[in-house]
C-alpha cells in the first residue's frame, strides 16, 4: 500500500520525488512571459507556475534528490534559479497538492500514512447534491457537425446582432412586457415553466460541450446538481484548461450564456406575435430565465459557474477560489500574527485582487447559507432548519477546524504571536459587531398602502344576496339617496312578507278582542304585536338593505361593476365608491418593528410616494394599536404584485384566503395636495417613508432581506399551487 509522508515531520532535503502519473504540463504564453499549466488528471485540478518553477519540477524523476534538483536548476538558469527557501516551499507544495509523490524506496516511506484532509460532509451536503449521468463526449461528437457552426465567428456576430435587435424590439414594447410580469396563475403554468427551465439549462450545458470540442477538448462527465433541491445541469469541460489560448477557454465558459441569450432573443420576437395573457406570461418567464436570471446567476464570479472561470482566465489565475482563499489566509496571518509567508503564489501581481475576491467569496458563502436557512425554515419548518444546519456544518466545519488547529500550532510554537492575534481578532470582531449590530444608521423604511376615501364613502352590502340589477356605471354622478344596486334574496323577502301578513292577522285579532271586551285575548295579542313589531322592523331594515343607495352625492367609482351582475355577494362586501371630492386617505400596513416610529409621527407629516409620481406628503391621522395578520387590501399581496408576503389560509367560512405571514399594524394617512380630491386615484398603491435613526445596519439588513425572501417564497408557493 502506498504511503504519503507528512512534510512537517520529514527532512525534505533528503527525499526524492517523482511526478504523479496523469500530471501534464502545458506551456502558455501571457504577454512576454511563458507559464505552464499543470493538470492533475485524476483530480481534475489545475495550477499555473512560471518557467523557473517548471524547470525545477521537471527534474523530479524519482532518482534526483531535492539538493540535486536545486543544483541542476541553478546550473541551467543561473541567477534566475529559485532560492532554496522558495524551492523548498514549491517542493512541499507539489507533495501536498498531489503533483508529486515520494519515490519508491525513499526513506520517507517509513512515515505512516497521512491522507490529505478532506471534508467528508461536503460529499453529503443535503442542499448541494451532485448526480453524475455519464460521459456525453460521444454524443457531442455526433452533434458537432450539425450544431458546431453556431459558434463560428460569423454565426456569433449574427447572434449578437440578433440580440441587439431583440433588445430594441423589447424597448419599443416595454409597457406591455412589464404588464406581462403580473402573475398569471394557471395549473399548467408550473409544469410549462419547469420544462422551460430544464430545456434552457440543457442547451446551456450543450453550448459548453460543443465549444469545448470545437477547440479539441473532451467532455468527461455530465449530470445534475440539486442546489437546494432545484435541478441544475452541469458538464465537466475542465479539459479546456489545456487550451493554449485563454480566449478559447473564455469562449468555452461564455458559450452557455450565449446560447441562452440567443434563445431569449428568439423568445422576444415570438412574444411580440402573441396576445394571449397566458402565452405572454410563459414567454415572459422564458425571456427572464434565459437572460436576466442567466446573467445574474451564471455570470456571478463568486459562484463556481461560468463567471468564475471567465474571471479566473482574465486574471490568469487557475484555481481562483483556492488561491484567493490562500491569499486571505496569508493576509490574515500577516495582520493577526505578523507572519509573512514565503510560499510562491500563482497570482502574480494580482495579490490584492485575490484577497478582495477571497473575502467577497467568503461573505457570499455566508449569505447563501443564511438565505437557504431562512428559505428552508419557511418552506419546510423544523425539517428545513435541520437541513440548513447540516449544510452549514458541511460547508464550514472543516475551515473552522483548520483555523483552530492553525491557531493552536502558533500558540504552542510562538505564544506571543498567538496573544497578539487573539487581541487583534477580538478587537476586529468587536468593531464589526458594534458597527453592524449596535451603531444606529439613518435608513428610511417604508410601509405600503392603498389610496381610499374616508370611512363612509365606501358602499358595502349590509346583507347577503345576488346582484339583481345595476342602476349606475363607473364615472356616473349620483345624488344622495339615489338607487345604485338592487339585490335579490328570497329568504329576506319571504320573511318580510310573512311577518307583514302575520302582523296584519295579529292586529285583526287584537281589534276583535277589544270589540268583544275579551281582556285576556287582547293582552296576548298586544304582546304578540310588540314582538312582531320588533321582528318586522328588523326584517324591513334587511329588505330595505336590498336596495343599495348613495349615502352622499358624488361620482361612482366601480371598475367592471357590470361583470358582477347575478353574482353572489356577502354581507359587508365592498361594492363601489361614491367619490364626493373629499381628501383621500392612504391606508398603510406597518411592520411591527416600525410601529413605534410611526406612532411618534401621529399628527405629523410623513413623505408619501404614489406610483411613479413625485413625492408628496400626508398627515398621520390614526394608528390602529392592534396588530393582525388580516390582509387589508388584496393588491398589497406579493402574489398580486404588492410587497407584503402572504400565505394561503382557511377563513372563518372555510374558504381559502390570503393571510399575512406575520402580524402588522394599520394606519391612516390623510393625503395633502393642491387638488387632493382629483390628484390621487382611489385604489392606487403607494407607500410612506419612515426615516429611522434608532435601528442598526444589521437590523435593517435582516428585516429587508427577510421580507424579500418571504415575498419570493409566497409568489413561488402561489404559482406552484396554481
Automatic annotation (TrEMBL):
A single MF term (Gene Ontology): metalloendopeptidase activity
Keyword annotations of the record: Coiled coil, Membrane, Transmembrane, Transmembrane helix
Entry keyword S-adenosyl-L-methionine: no
Span of domain Peptidase M50: 195-271
GO aspect biological process, one term: membrane protein intracellular domain proteolysis
Transmembrane regions listed in the UniProt entry: 146-170, 223-244, 250-270, 282-299, 351-371, 378-398, 418-437
Family indicated by similarity: Belongs to the peptidase M50B family.
Pfam families to which the protein is assigned, alphabetical: Peptidase_M50
PANTHER family reported for this sequence: MEMBRANE-BOUND TRANSCRIPTION FACTOR SITE-2 PROTEASE (PTHR13325:SF3), PROTEASE M50 MEMBRANE-BOUND TRANSCRIPTION FACTOR SITE 2 PROTEASE (PTHR13325)
Subcellular location(s) of the protein: Endomembrane system
One cellular component (GO) term of this entry: cytoplasm
Claim: Cell membrane is one of the keywords in the record: no
Annotated protein name in UniProt: Efflux transporter, RND family, MFP subunit
Coiled-coil residue spans: 522-549
Cofactor: Zn(2+)
Major subcellular location class: membrane
Record's bilayer topology term: Multi-pass membrane protein
Amino acid at each position: 500500500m502506498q504511503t504519503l509522508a507528512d512534510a512537517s515531520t520529514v527532512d525534505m532535503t533528503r527525499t526524492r520525488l517523482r511526478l504523479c502519473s496523469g500530471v501534464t504540463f502545458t506551456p502558455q504564453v501571457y504577454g512576454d512571459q511563458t507559464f505552464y499549466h499543470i493538470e492533475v488528471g485524476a483530480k481534475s485540478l489545475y495550477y499555473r507556475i512560471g518557467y523557473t518553477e517548471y524547470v525545477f519540477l521537471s527534474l523530479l524523476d524519482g532518482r534526483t534528490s531535492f539538493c540535486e534538483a536545486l543544483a541542476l536548476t541553478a546550473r541551467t538558469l543561473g541567477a534566475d534559479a529559485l532560492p532554496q527557501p522558495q524551492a523548498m516551499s514549491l517542493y512541499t507544495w507539489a507533495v501536498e497538492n498531489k503533483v508529486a509523490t515520494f519515490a519508491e524506496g525513499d526513506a520517507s516511506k517509513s512515515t505512516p500514512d497521512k491522507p490529505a484532509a478532506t471534508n467528508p460532509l461536503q460529499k453529503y451536503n443535503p442542499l448541494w447534491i451532485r448526480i453524475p449521468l455519464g460521459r456525453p463526449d460521444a454524443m457531442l461528437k455526433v452533434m458537432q457537425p450539425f450544431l458546431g457552426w453556431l459558434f463560428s465567428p460569423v454565426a456569433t456576430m449574427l447572434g449578437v446582432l440578433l440580440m441587439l435587435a431583440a433588445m430594441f424590439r423589447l424597448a419599443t414594447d416595454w409597457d406591455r412586457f412589464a404588464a406581462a410580469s403580473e402573475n398569471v396563475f394557471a395549473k399548467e403554468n408550473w409544469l410549462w415553466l419547469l420544462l422551460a427551465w430544464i430545456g434552457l439549462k440543457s442547451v446551456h450545458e450543450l453550448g459548453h460541450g460543443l465549444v469545448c470540442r470545437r477547440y479539441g477538448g473532451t467532455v468527461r462527465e455530465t449530470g445534475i446538481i440539486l442546489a437546494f433541491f432545484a435541478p441544475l445541469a452541469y458538464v465537466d469541460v475542465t479539459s479546456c484548461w489545456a487550451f493554449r489560448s485563454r480566449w478559447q477557454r473564455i469562449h468555452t465558459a461564455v458559450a452557455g450564456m450565449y446560447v441562452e441569450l440567443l434563445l431569449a432573443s428568439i423568445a422576444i420576437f415570438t412574444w411580440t406575435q402573441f396576445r394571449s395573457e397566458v402565452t405572454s406570461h410563459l414567454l415572459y418567464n422564458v425571456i427572464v430565465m434565459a437572460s436576466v436570471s442567466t446573467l445574474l446567476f451564471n455570470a456571478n464570479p463568486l459562484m463556481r459557474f461560468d463567471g468564475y472561470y471567465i474571471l479566473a482566465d482574465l486574471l490568469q489565475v487557475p484555481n481562483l477560489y483556492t488561491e484567493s482563499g490562500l491569499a486571505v489566509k496569508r493576509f490574515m496571518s500577516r495582520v493577526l500574527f505578523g507572519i509573512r509567508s514565503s510560499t510562491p503564489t500563482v497570482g502574480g501581481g494580482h495579490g490584492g485582487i485575490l484577497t478582495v475576491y477571497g473575502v467577497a467569496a467568503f461573505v457570499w458563502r455566508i449569505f447563501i447559507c443564511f438565505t437557504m436557512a431562512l428559505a428552508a425554515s419557511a418552506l419546510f419548518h423544523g425539517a428545513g432548519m435541520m437541513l440548513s444546519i447540516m449544510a452549514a456544518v458541511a460547508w464550514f466545519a472543516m475551515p473552522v477546524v483548520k483555523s483552530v488547529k492553525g491557531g493552536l500550532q502558533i500558540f504552542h510554537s510562538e505564544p506571543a504571536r498567538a496573544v497578539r492575534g487573539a487581541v487583534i481578532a477580538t478587537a476586529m470582531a468587536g468593531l464589526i459587531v458594534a458597527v453592524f449590530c449596535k451603531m444606529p444608521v439613518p435608513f428610511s423604511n417604508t410601509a405600503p398602502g392603498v389610496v381610499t376615501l374616508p370611512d363612509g364613502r365606501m358602499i358595502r352590502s349590509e346583507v347577503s344576496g345576488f346582484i339583481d340589477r345595476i342602476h349606475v356605471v363607473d364615472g356616473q354622478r349620483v345624488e344622495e339617496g339615489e338607487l345604485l344596486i338592487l339585490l335579490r334574496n328570497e329568504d329576506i323577502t319571504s320573511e318580510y312578507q310573512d311577518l307583514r301578513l302575520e302582523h296584519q292577522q295579529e292586529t285583526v285579532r287584537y281589534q276583535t278582542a277589544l270589540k268583544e271586551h275579551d281582556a285576556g285575548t287582547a293582552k296576548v295579542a298586544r304582546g304578540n304585536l310588540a314582538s312582531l313589531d320588533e321582528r318586522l322592523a328588523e326584517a324591513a331594515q334587511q329588505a330595505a338593505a336590498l336596495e343599495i343607495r348613495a349615502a352622499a352625492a358624488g361620482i361612482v367609482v366601480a371598475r367592471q361593476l357590470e361583470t358582477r351582475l347575478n353574482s353572489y355577494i356577502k354581507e359587508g362586501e365592498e361594492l363601489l365608491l361614491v367619490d364626493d371630492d373629499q381628501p383621500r386617505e392612504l391606508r398603510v400596513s406597518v411592520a411591527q418593528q416600525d410601529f413605534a416610529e410611526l406612532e411618534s409621527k401621529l399628527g405629523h407629516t410623513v413623505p408619501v410616494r404614489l406610483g411613479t409620481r413625485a413625492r408628496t406628503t400626508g398627515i398621520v391621522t390614526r394608528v390602529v394599536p392592534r396588530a393582525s395578520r388580516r390582509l387589508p387590501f388584496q393588491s398589497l399581496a406579493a402574489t398580486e404584485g404588492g410587497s407584503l408576503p402572504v400565505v394561503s389560509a382557511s377563513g372563518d367560512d372555510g374558504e381559502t384566503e390570503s393571510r399575512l405571514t406575520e402580524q402588522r399594524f394599520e394606519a391612516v394617512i390623510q393625503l395633502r395636495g393642491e387638488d387632493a380630491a382629483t390628484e390621487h386615484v382611489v385604489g392606487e398603491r403607494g407607500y410612506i417613508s419612515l426615516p429611522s435613526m434608532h435601528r442598526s445596519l444589521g437590523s435593517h439588513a435582516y428585516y429587508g432581506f427577510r421580507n424579500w425572501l418571504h415575498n419570493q417564497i409566497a409568489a413561488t408557493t402561489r404559482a406552484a399551487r396554481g
